[in-house]
Amino acid sequence: MITRLSHATIYVTDHELALEFYVGKLGFEKRTDAMLEGFRWLSVGPKTQPDLELVLMKLAPNPMMDESTVAQLRELLAKGALGSGVFSVDDCRRTYDELVAKGVEFVAEPNERPYGVEAIVKDPFGNWFSMTQHRTPAT
């Protein structure tokens, strides 16, 4: 039986820039940084969610991906075509203001949605994430 998701992949083109963004600007913590047979396994995660690792996967040919596939993914990243998930926040507007002050780029500022308040944040590579303050269900 599958019990939880422990790792998810975010494609990046530069590990150091990815660390600067995810750790330095978003406030995540570095979880794993190891070299495995010439391959760097780098992961980060929210400080409040220790059981999740976001693997910052550098786009490069590997046994699972040839150069043509890497080129296609790079093109999709550059277009901003890869939505990678949802970051939950307690206060979307406050977090938006804090991140804008740190130089984080947003595709959309906070807006009311049926499910809460949402802004769309973009990393330096083109990945975008919903940053959502979920509406508290009525009791």
List keywords for this structure.
2,3-Dihydroxybiphenyl 1,2-Dioxygenase, domain 1, 139 residues, alpha/beta
Structure notes:
The model has no long low-confidence stretch (mean pLDDT 95). By secondary structure, the protein is an alpha/beta fold. The strands form two sheets. Strands 1-4-3-2 form a four-stranded mixed β-sheet, with helices on one face. It has one domain (7-134): 2,3-Dihydroxybiphenyl 1,2-Dioxygenase, domain 1 (Roll), CATH 3.10.180.10. The protein has helices at residues 15-25, 67-79, 92-101; strands at 7-12, 29-36, 39-45, 53-58, 83-88, 105-113, 116-122, 128-134. The chain starts with 6 loop residues before the first strand and ends in a 5-residue tail after the last strand. It contains three helices and eight strands.
Number of helices: 3
Biggest sheet architecture: 4 strands, mixed
Give the strand order of the largest sheet, numbering strands 1, 2, ... along the chain. Answer: 1-4-3-2
Distance between the termini: 32 Å
Residue windows where pLDDT falls under 50 for at least 5 positions: none
**CATH superfamily grouping:** 2,3-Dihydroxybiphenyl 1,2-Dioxygenase, domain 1
Number of domains: 1
What's the architecture in CATH terms?
Roll
| Structural classification | alpha/beta
Radius of gyration, whole Å = 16 Å
CATH class: Alpha Beta
Molecular shape: globular
Query: Strand tally, please?
Result: 8
- Write down the secondary-structure element order: EHEEEHEHEEE
Fraction of residues in helices? Answer: 10-25%
